[in-house]
Structure formats: C-alpha cells, structure tokens
Amino acid sequence: MPRRNALAAVLRVRKVQEEVASAEVALARAEAEKARATLRRFEDRLESPVTATGSAHWAGIMAARTSLAAEAAAARALVGEADGVVSERLGAWAEARAARRGVERLAERQAAALRAEQERREQLAVDDRTGADHHRRTRETW
Questions:
Q1: CA atoms within 13 A on the CB side of 53
Q2: From the first residue on, what is the mean pLDDT of each consecutive set of 10 residues in the chain (142 residues)?
Q3: Which of 59, 89, 96, 111, CA to CA, is 20 to 30 A from 103?
Q4: Number of folded domains in the chain?
C-alpha cells in the first residue's frame, strides 16, 4: 500500500503542475491579445485619413505618422514575442498533461494488479472452503 500512497502523492503534484501550466497558458494568451489590441490601435490610427492645411502642418503630421509607424512596428514585434511565449506555454502544458497521464496510467495499472491479486486470494479462499466442504462430505459418507 505505501507505493499506492506514493503514486497518489505524485499524481496530486502532477495535477497541480498541469493546473499551473494551464494558468500560464491563459496568462500568455491574455498578454498576446493585449499586444494585438495595441497593434490594432496603432494600425487604425495609421490608416486614418490625413488632412493638412499647410506645409508646416503637413510636416508635423508626417513626423507624427513616422513615429506612429515605428510604434506599430514595435507593437508588431511584441505580438510576435507574445505568440512565441504562448507556444512555449502550450508546449509546457502538453508536457505537464502527458506527465500526469503517465502517472494516472501507472496508478490504474497498479490498482488493476491489486484488484486481480485480491480476486485471486478470494478465489483461493473459496476454493479452500469448497475443498474442505467436499472433503468433509466424503468423510461423512464413508
């Protein structure tokens, strides 16, 4: 039985690790979506029409748009990084799920072996009782 308790403890740890990995995936996805929203805001502002009344005004708008384009490029890079983090977290989550499932299968096999052993012992006990009853009956008839 101590091995079963050890497997139960390992299984609990694996489940916690899987839950942590799942939470990290959710956080990474939220960060990626936040980065995408920021990028969309920059791109929407870049796509808005430009109206200028003079050359100085036009130069100011172009400088602002150049700066905005640089910010959009940086936001695009952040989206790429965030997507990479999501991929890494998904990989870690998959590994945690596989580790948990491996321990679950081991525990299931052990439980099945314990049930089989218990059934074997019960059958032996039944066989012993049956044999003893038969022996007793045959002695009584002699």
A1: 0
A2: 73 95 97 97 88 82 91 96 97 96 92 94 89 77 63
A3: 89
A4: 1
